[in-house]
Amino acid sequence: MPREIFDSDQFIELSKIAIHCRVKRRKEDVKLKLRTKKYLFTFKTDFKTAEDLINKIDCSIIEL
Questions:
Q1: Other beta carbons less than 10 A from residue 30's beta carbon
Q2: Which stretches within the chain are classed as H helix?
Q3: Measured distance CA(59)–CA(54) in Å, rounded
Q4: Reduced to 3 states, what is the DSSP secondary structure of residue 33?
Q5: Is 2-63 a CATH 3.30.720.90 domain?
Q6: What Cα–Cα distance (Å) separates residue 2 from each residue in 5, 33, 38, 56, 60?
Q7: Which of 7, 21, 28, 48 is deepest in the core (most CB within 10 A)?
C-alpha cells in the first residue's frame, strides 16, 4: 500500500529501513519514493530540498 509523508525528518528516518529510493524529477517538483518491505512511501518536494535529502539518505538511489 502506498502512503504519502509530509515531513522531511520522517523521510530520513524511514530511509534507514528502506530497500531503495526512487527519484522522479518532474517539471514542477520532485517525487521521492521509499520502498520498504511493507509500504511504498512518497514524498513530494522542490528541487533544492530534494538534493539535500538525497545526500542524507542511507539506502540505494534509483533515478527514473
A1: 19
A2: 8-15, 47-56
A3: 9
A4: strand
A5: yes
A6: 10, 9, 9, 22, 19
A7: 21
Cell readout for 7 is: 515531513
Walking along the chain (64 residues) 10 residues at a time, the average pLDDT comes out as 93 95 96 96 96 92 94
CA distances to 5, 27, 28, 33 from 20, rounded to whole Å, are 16, 23, 23, 8
Cell of 38: 511493507
Q: Are 47 and 9 in contact (CB under 8 A)?
A: no
Spell out the domain ranges in the chain: 2-63
**Between 8-15 and 47-56, two packed helices, what is the crossing angle to 10 degrees?**
30
Provide the pLDDT for residue 1: 79
